[in-house]
Amino acid sequence: MTPEEQNFMRKINAEEKIEPKDWMPDAYRKNVTRQMSQHAHSEVIGMQPEGNWITRAPSLRRKVVLLSKVQDEAGHGLYLYSACETLGISRAEMIEALQKGTAKYASIFNYPTLTWGDVGAIGWLVDGAAIVNQVSLQRTSYGPYSRGMIRICKEESFHQRQGYEALLVLAQGSPEQKQMAQDSLNRFYWPALMMFGPHDSESAHSAKSMEWKIKRETNDDLRQKFIDQTVPQIEFLGLEHPDPAIKWNEERGHYDHGDIDWEEFYSVINGNGHCNRQRIEHHVAAHEEGAWVRDAITAYNDKKMPTKQKTWRKGYLI
Ligand code: BYC
């Protein structure tokens, strides 16, 4: 190992954060950029399924809560894009990769939101799964990512609670409302488990990401945590568990569970989910509609800032 590599590994082993100006292996930079930019894309694309219900929220209170949550997701995307830019990639490049399909976003957002119950299920299950993952990522080795996660987790816990509460009201309502809650649980439970990624044995990036402490817990370990915490939540709602194989295993101290449909997972991440095309088309349209805002910011910046400080490219501060 070169002295630079030795110092990098010393920091990783000593739980010191890697900061933007520190030396880091190219493969580390590439891997954190990949994960963090895809995380940012997930936050931004993730606004669409819930945004679909803002105009149809069942009460003013629900509408205000949902608006606030969706705005939070935009904020999470912005923190993460900014944190990712510290690695030397511009926001324009990240967005181009998303729109061209070379960068992924969480598979869950390619499922449609058919009923109001789905909005509750997203808050409860999708944000709930995201929290399990992101609490672990608070200890990621890249400083800006770790600090971003600490802030994001605080907001996510409100998201999870509002979703669970919305489903609780449905589950305690009329038989039709309870059925709506059950149907949303049935459709979102398995895709929520897929959010943790493939099995560890199939995960291309896990070994290196664990060694470099980019990831602190493996896909399967985090998924198991989520499965375990969800069982009593389903019981409290008085709903049926969508997995008939779910069973407490005294010896393991965890729930055993049925198999995930990995064919479905790979089909969705390869672009063939219900909504993949719609999500990207919508993002492209919104991005084009917003071009005048970026142009206006660039023009304002050109006018106001001394030449030396001008660090804008294609409408983004870099
Ligand atoms: N969906 O080697 P692996 C939110 C890809 S948003 C799509 O295990 P890794 C919210 C993976 O990228 C919060 N793709 O990868 C927002 C890789 O492909 P590439 C979202 C997936 O990175 C709005 C390949 O499969 N949270 O909460 O070690 C409203 C091999 O996988 C998925 C995050 O983004 C998937 N589910 O581990 C509501 C967390 N799984 O890049 C809520 C941050 C895997 O080689 N990300 N792939 O083309 C992570 O923790 C990790 O990236 C993952 C995957 C655990 C997801």
TrEMBL record:
Transmembrane segments: none annotated. The gene is paaA. Its EC number is 1.14.13.149. This is Ring-1,2-phenylacetyl-CoA epoxidase subunit PaaA. InterPro entries: Aromatic_CoA_ox/epox, Ferritin-like, Ferritin-like_SF, PaaA, PaaA_PaaC. SUPFAM superfamilies: Ferritin-like. One of its GO terms (molecular function) is phenylacetyl-CoA 1,2-epoxidase activity. One of its GO terms (cellular component) is cytosol. GO terms for biological process: phenylacetate catabolic process. Keywords: Oxidoreductase.
